[in-house]
Amino acid sequence: DAGITQSPRHKVTETGTPVTLRCHQTENHRYMYWYRQDPGHGLRLIHYSYGVKDTDKGEVSDGYSVSRSKTEDFLLTLESATSSQTSVYFCAISELLAGVYTQYFGPGTRLTVL
Amino acid sequence: DQQVKQNSPSLSVQEGRISILNCDYTNSMFDYFLWYKKYPAEGPTFLISISSIKDKNEDGRFTVFLNKSAKHLSLHIVPSQPGDSAVYFCAASLTQGGSEKLVFGKGTKLTVNP
Q1: Residue A47's Cα: distance from chain center in Å?
Q2: Is A94 in CB contact (< 8 Å) with chain B?
């Protein structure tokens, strides 16, 4: 499972409240990613990190921010949650496997914004 | 603009027969292609990958074929088993500016009937 944990696994919150999701990895991977999965959309990249304090935007970054102060933790923050951010959020790491950078995913966090 | 397309939202096959899942892409700069399987309430799991310089890669019951001229790849599962029932995502890898990112299709739900 590439040593990836996500917390919380489930969260229900109200519109306008801040929410932080945590991704933790134990194998010192440099690259980490946050995705959201929605019906009819597959997996869409929110933000990614290529090292401590090095992050960049993905295709659906509006309304989200990230931080990576330690190699093992990658935090995703919704500053003011909206109902459109109800989704399942997956964290991933990238590992070189037989010459291919392969991403491995955490178990996911189901977020409901009421 | 969807760069990776899985045009069949669902596929149903009989146990023991072949399952063929298809994927089309538009960006000729993709350097690898990967297939992931996802069960409900779990994170996607990596299945198999193929480099853009190859046309076939095989791993047990799973074979991926790549047709670069047609910008098309397919995943063959032979023989199909009920435990293969899941959503399958096609993903394409793009390396830009030293960062590696995946672009996912919307997924195909495979049902293998006993």
Answers
A1: 7
A2: yes
Give B23 to chain A, closest Cα distance, Å.
Answer: 13
pLDDT at A2 over 70: no
Cross-chain residue pair B46–A103, CB shorter than 8 Å: yes
Higher pLDDT among residues A41 and B25, named by residue: B25
Asked if pLDDT for residue A111 goes beyond 60, the answer is yes
Is B47's Cβ below 8 Å from some Cβ in A? no
Chain B residues 58-97 within an 8 A CB cutoff of chain A: 89, 91, 93, 95
Residue A3 contacts B, CB cutoff 8 Å: no
What proportions of chain B, in percent to the nearest 5, are helix, strand and coil? Answer: 5, 60, 40
How far apart, in whole angstroms, are the C-alpha atoms of residue A6 and residue B67?
A: 37
Please determine, for residue A96, whether its predicted confidence score (pLDDT) is greater than 90: no
- B73-98 pLDDT tens trace: 999 999 999 999 999 999 999 887 66
